[in-house]
Amino acid sequence: MSMPFYVAPEQIMKDRADYARKGIARGKALIAIQYSDGIAIVAENPSNTLRKISEIYDRIAFAGVGKYNEFDQLRVSGVRAADLKGYQYSRIDVDARSLANQYAQILGQIFTHEMKPLEVEILVAEVADSATNDQLFHIFYDGTVLDERKFCVLGGDSDAIYARMKESSLLTQLHTAQLSEVVQLCRNALSGPDRQLPVEECEIAVLKRAGERRAFTRLDDAEVNALVQG
Amino acid sequence: MPFFTPGDHPGASFAELLKRVGIDPFQKHLAESAAQAHFPHATTCVALRFADGVVMAGDRRATSGNVISHRSMEKVVSADKFSGVAIAGTAGPAMEMIKLFQLQLEHYEKVEGQLLSLEGKANQLSMMVRGNLPAAMQGLIVVPIFAGYDLQKGYGRLWDYDPTGGRYEEREFVATGSGSVHAGAVIKVGWRTSMSQDAAVRLALKSLWEAADSDSATGGPDTLRGIYPIVASITNKGWERIDDSTLSQLVEELIAEHQERNQEV
After folding, report:
1. How many separate domains does chain B show?
2. Contact across the interface for B14 and A83, Cβ inside 8 Å
3. What is the structure's pLDDT at A97?
4. What is the CATH code of the structural domain delimited by A9-229?
5. How many residue pairs from chains A and B have C-beta atoms closer than 8 A?
6. Interface predicted TM-score (ipTM) over 0.90
């Protein structure tokens, strides 16, 4: 009987993290950002049918980057958890913090115990009555949760995109920023200096602060066009 | 968070998901005498087609035997943006069914990323009514009507159900509940093809008025408390409830019409 080689736990974790990071780096990025009327999420997505951004509950949105089948499985689990909780308790008891924690548990569990970590990075965003209470939870492949302010960047090349976002003066006045302004900012940051992200590859959705019970709205092609060109 | 392996997951069905996590809303442990007990009972609802869609309406009364148990019940509600459901029968299971149905449509929409077809929604409701059959056999009957705007076909459609889950699409109108004979007769006489929305709303209101006039379990417009029937239209713009100020105006016209009729005698 052959003995398995000894591999240090540090090495196992490092290898898994490298593997997950490589997978995520191949994917295209997305940005979530606050603006005057709520939260906008802008993703680079060449597909018009396979979505990166979607609705979880009344005031909660989900966005994922990396391997599609993996973050889509997480998305559906989130919808199930939220709908179950809303059914058993009340609609107002469903919150992003609890969902983010559950996602972190699942991702952390899979990272340490499974052969292969999930190659995903996800965002759980919740729009509140006022901008100060809006929540952006950024959850990593190993279950790390970051509670981000103003905006957050997920996916490949996120450090460079983050740096480009940071340069903008708009960040100090997001509470009065129009949707078209933040979309323009996100598009430029996602594009970088060497190219312009085509309009057809922008997937945009918003969580509107005031209005109907279901705050999530996906912008259709015409609306995206009008926003980006206008 | 429920996390299923592929092949074992409940798909886009919320009812199936509830069962997987050990909640079965249709599992009823009833006493033999459930049928004899006086649980609150909801009554008359109607739906009729007009040129641009459908109008739904229902009275606000719930009765327990000969006692009025609620005066402002809402038994006509939107199921989602383009459809509505109205329920007559035992109030408890009926309200639970409405809640589950609304959740099921929203759950499907979110999981699948698109709206269920109108036919699909009608079918879902049929399965829920069938799920309630054991309770119905013991007297806790729930009989809904379902109506909506079919975005694919471009017109309004409506369905009638029986307690076993039988689903029947009607072309003109449907009525359910204890006052349905009276309400249905009024609509039958007044219904015209391609009616305007205004005419359809007036006819629905009149049908409930006549039902309340002849059926003790159906409540008429309560001008004293400002409680009016729930009336809503569903068109390609979606569900829209007719507000109480409009209804109070229409009710006054209806009263004037009756007074005029009586003076002639």
Report:
1. 1
2. yes
3. 96
4. 3.60.20.10
5. 45
6. yes
